[in-house]
Amino acid sequence: MVVYVLRRLALAVVTLFLLTLIVFAISNVLPQDVARAILGPFAPAESVAQLNKQLGTDQPLLVQYWRLLKGIITFDFGTSYQSGQPVTELIGQTLSNSAKLAILALLLTVPLGVVGGIAAALRKGRLADRVIVTLGLAGSAIPEFVTSTFLIFVLGLKLNVLPVLATWPEGSSIGTQAYYLLMPSLALVLVYFGYIARMARAGTISALEADYTRTATMKGMTRAKVLRTHVLRNALLPTISVVATQTGYLFGGLLAVEVIFNVNGLGRLLVTAAKAKDLPVLSAGVLVIGTIYMVATLLADLLISYLNPRIRLAANA
Amino acid sequence: MSETTRPSDGPHSAATPSSSTSDAADMTHGLVDREMNEMVTVPAGPGMTASAAALTARKTARRETFRLLMRKPSFVIGNLIVIFWVVCAVGGKAIAPYDPQQNFSDFLHAPPGGDFLLGTDRLGRDVLSRIITGARDVLIVAPVSAVIGVTLGTVLGLVMGFYRGAVDDILSRIVEAFLSLPIAVVGLLALVVLGPSNTTVLTVVGLLFAPIVARTVRAAVLAERELDYVQAARLQGESSFYIMFREILPNITGPIIVELTVRIGYAIFTVATLSFLGVGVQPPSPDWGLAISDEYSFIISGYWWPVVYPSLAIASLVIAVNLIADALQGVLSR
User: Fold this and answer.
1) Contact B307/B299 with Cβ under 8 angstroms?
2) How many residue pairs from chains A and B have C-beta atoms closer than 8 A?
3) Those residues with Cβ within 8 angstroms of residue A135's Cβ, 6 or more apart along the chain or in another chain
4) What pTM, to 2 d.p., does this model score?
């Protein structure tokens, strides 16, 4: 187990390092002249030079990259080109709202997806299965902002049951905030339900067909007990990975959803930064989202190896 | 991240047992035999040479695949919807009732019905005409970026799966790092840096798809490379390049075609999202994602038609492409 954990941690560090290289390559190397990319072709040369100096992008690339690495360790990503505020502060202010939205969405999606997937697998090939699979497929195919507009149209305009804008009164309780975040999280639920349900369904089907399930049934175990002790545990292992992957990707979906529902979160911050070409904020935000994905998949891998001895033993061999 | 994270890696990473004793006939026709086995077994006529029989078998198999596809309602419905939007994209202004840019200033946000079947937007432009002409940009950008991504990803996946070892390890880590970034997020960053235009959008989305495709192709190659026909080609002294592109590639076209269709669906998803976020297709294009971005704040005031109709257009297109992908997967995957 220890060997596996150490190996897995080392891998995560390597991937994180590569992630910083990718983000650096896109935001600092690709534009050649960063300030020119921000200010546009018609800005006078002096202001371009001044902004480059201010951003530190007039220095050699190696120096710039070293500063990025140092910034990650010390949580210092420089200052926003647009507002002059420290980037870390901006991200800190918004990240918690995004986290609330993501957690609410996961709390709704994971149970729904798992139950839906298992229900579909138990009724494989029948109507309920087809409905769940088709709904999941359609939901995950449609972009989040399109789903959002449908939700606003139906729940906000026609039925008028939920608040459309996630701007809760100052000092609201968690419950009130969740109420305001319900519609945006439903938009995410519709998109991510399909992935989780599909995985839970596939896992259940293969566990149902496995030899140990047949043995358990044939030695007279009740159906409910077979499902509980043999099928579910094996069926849900692959689902954990998908939940972790989707947690990371959820933050991609947050961009559009937070813009539409006016959530003061990381996604909206990045879109605003993109409109203002605020590269320091944008590249730091991209790094944060990549790191969230990596931590989520790391935790999932560790959890799976804890639950499934075959994996940790294979790593030791 | 590691092998354990990706359930899809499971069945593919286990090496197929390779047989070292393959007689001469097997060696020469390994490729042909496999293709026949995977599709429909067609008995070769007694007078035919092996390669002529193979050609006929291939043709018959292709026709059989097509026949199987046409029997799938999802394939037929998906294609009908896609064809409908392609007609709109090609026809454009010629079939639209009005000029998509014309402002009917007396009819701002006119409701659907009457002269404007789907209503007008905030600038008095005909929504129906804009939906018809708005199909064009996304239907050019999305498939082209999917083709770029699948081409690059296939080459990358072939190299990774064929060489294994250090090449694979290094490339796999880079692929993993790319996969940790949602495409909309890293695409947003890249397009801010490069400036939005249809060309940069399709290049960026295509490049970002390549690592994902590489994973799928790599898994398929890993399963293939241990098979007899690859061993045979090696023993014959064929170059690595020849084995990768002339021997393995033809045998993994099934998964690649499925992947291409899936990618086209995701490309529409991504391009529409980027346009919505303001870094994709640029105004004054009547693009659907742009239209939604311009109008969504008016829904709650009751002006839903300039948003809901383009939303339905996007939804119908991505679902159609996914229906096709689903049918192809059922018929082509082994």
Assistant:
1) yes
2) 184
3) A193, A194
4) 0.85
Are A91 and A43 within 8 A, CB to CB?
Answer: no
CB-based contacts of A132, cutoff 8 Å, min separation 6: A116, A117, A119, A120, A197, A201
CA B285-B289-B291 angle, 5° bins: 60
- Identify all chain A residues contacting B194, using CB atoms and an 8 Å cutoff: 30-31
Domain at A92-316: CATH code: 1.10.3720.10
Q: Residue A10's CB: how many other CB atoms inside 10 A?
A: 10
B185/A14 Cβ within 8 A: no
Average pLDDT over residues B17-41: 38
Check B2 against A8: CB less than 8 A apart. yes
Compare CB distances from B311 to A146, A290, A298 and report the shortest one's residue: A146
Of B40, B74, B72, B69, the closest CA to residue B57 belongs to: B40
Structure tokens at B89: 């994209």
Comparing alpha-carbon positions, the chain A residue that sits nearest to B272 is A143
Helix axes B183-194, A266-275, angle to 10 degrees: 20
Token pair 């800005």 is at which residue?
A43
Length of chain A: 317
Residue with tokens 């991209």: A286
What gap in Å lies between CA B198 and CA B201, rounded to an integer?
5
b/e code A86-115 from CB counts within 10 Å (16+ = b) = bbbebbeebbebbebbbebbbebbbeebbe
Q: Which of residues 290-309 of A touch B (CB under 8 A)?
A: 290, 293-294, 297-298, 300-301, 304-305
Question: In this complex, do A144 and B176 lie within 8 Å of one another by their Cβ atoms?
Answer: no
What is the dihedral angle through the alpha carbons of B69, B73, B77, B79, rounded to the nearest 10 degrees? 0
For B273, the closest chain A residue by CA position comes to A143
pLDDT digits (tens, 9 = 90+) for A68-115: 888 888 888 888 887 888 899 999 989 999 999 999 999 999 999 999
DSSP letter string over A17-41?
HHHHHHHHIIIIITTSSHHHHHH-T
> In a mutagenesis test of the B interface, which of A55, A149, A279, A307 is the best target, namely the one with the most B β-carbons within 10 Å?
A149
CA angle A174, A176, A181 (to 5 degrees): 90
Contact criterion met (CB < 8 Å) for A18 and B289: no
In this prediction, residue B97 has a pLDDT band, given cuts at 50, 70 and 90, of confident
How many whole angstroms separate alpha carbon A301 and alpha carbon B98? 56
Torsion of CA B27, B29, B33, B36, to 10 degrees: 160
How many Å lie between the alpha carbon of A252 and the closest alpha carbon of chain B? 5
Burial of A11 (0-12, 13-18, 19+ CB in 10 A): middle
A27, A145, A286 member nearest B273 (Cβ): A145
A42 token code pair: 């018609």
Per residue in B272-299, pLDDT tens?
A: 999 999 998 998 899 999 999 998 888 8
What whole-number distance in Å separates Cα of residue A69 and Cα of residue A90?
19
3-state secondary structure of A171: coil
